[in-house]
Amino acid sequence: MSVTTAQAHASVRLDGVSKVYGKDGAAVHALDQVSLEIAPGEFTCLIGASGCGKSTLLSLVAGLDEPTAGKVSVGGRTAFMFQEPALFPWLTAAANVELALRARGAGKVERRQRAAELLEVVHLGGFGGKRPHELSGGMRQRVALARALAQDADVLLMDEPFGALDAMTRDVLHDELDRICAERALTVLFVTHNVREAVRLGDRVVVLSSRPGRVIDEFGVAIERPRRIDSVQVAELAAKITDRLREEMTRHGQ
Amino acid sequence: MASNPMLAGLDALEMAVAQGRKSRGRRFADRAWSVLWPKLLAIAIVLLIWQLVHLTGWKKYAFAGPGATFASLWGQMQHLMLWQAIGTTMERALIGFALSVLFGAVVGALVSRIRPLRAAVGSMITGLQTMPSAAWFPFAIILFGNTTQAILFVIVMGSWPSVANGLITGVDYTPPLLLRAAKTMGLRRLSLYRHLILPASLPAFVAGLKQGWAFAWRSLLFGELLVQVPNVPSIGILLNSDQDQLDFAGATGIIIVILVLGILVDSAFTRADRAIRTRWGIVAAS
Predict the structure, then answer these.
(1) Sequence spans of domains, chain A
(2) φ, ψ for residue A18 (rounded to 5)?
(3) Minimal Cα distance from A84: which residue of B?
């Protein structure tokens, strides 16, 4: 096993992690020698152009996949949130959350109570009895967030969770995620291709190169919370990061 | 919801759209009528054509019109014999279908789980499915003689491949994203089957059941015409005796009975299918 439990400080630690898909001539280097350390309670955003292996990296941390080389250590359990809500369509919102609790072995009474609490956390207290298709896209994604929280994980992995939502809904969900992370001291690894979103949410923005995916830069986000996606500070740092990304893309064009 | 009024507002706006879509459904009586009238019209047209053909005097000595046919059917309905025959036939149908569901589900579950087994018998199941069940009769009669077992055997052989294939398809088409989500939640093995794969395969499984039923019903009636179990009245026996007595009206009456039974059972399957789809949000509840 190359995924072991990290000791002491770092919540997630990647040591020279590489991932190659396929063999020989057809091999694709998704990740190359990526080293990264995430402290407990830290909100880290990963950003990069397509083909930078962002999603591969999350899969490795989640233990859904094994690295070809290097070592991934995670201090505790992970929960995963996808771009699509990935709710089970035959279950109500509450039952979807309860299923995650059940997978952890929670009893019936506890499941019901906790699911109701978690739906309350994402402001869906009155919608537990609805099925996913009766909810809007933003509401579904909040149920998915409640389900991820139900897993009571130490690390929350988010793969462009707001990518499919309209800008207004996304804005409101940024505020909500900020609040929930602060309340629960969550460790988050958040993948996005939206630079402003990364700056709006993260304590730190890690920039990956494409093909193979490597860490090429890191930006600490020293902007005080609460932040606004359209504030001057966010825009300034986002512009800086975008320039860095463009530089990287130009390198590919040559 | 009080702590974020903006979110509550967004939700209210979104839900209003969904509610508006729903409330367009009409009253029950209106809906029932809109379902009923095309059917009634179709029946009326068939009866009209039938009567017209009868009036032309085509094959006059045998071809009975709707009047004589329904009079004959009404007469048969006064006798216990018809009801006993329907009872026997439906009992065989239910037993045979139940056996094939059991067998098909077990085979389907095994084949969908065990890879080498899939390679070995996967395509054979489809082969069996396309095989006309009539081909099994000599086999069954040699093995079991003129007995109910022979008929049941052919029903099971005709219908289990559809059930098994329905289940296999359902398992195969479990959405990969939901599989990923389930795995990240820590659902493994049996609980993965119970909470994800089985419910996800339900629509395809019901489709398989429906097709399996159609095959079972055909095999059964064919079997009752071929395998004459002595002293047990069945729909097949009634048809045979009508044929022997050249009773066209009687035979047509029995055909109508068979048609009605088939439609009733099929509508039960359709209803189950629709209930699942509505629950999943694949079709809007209307």
Answers:
(1) 88-152
(2) -125, 150
(3) B177
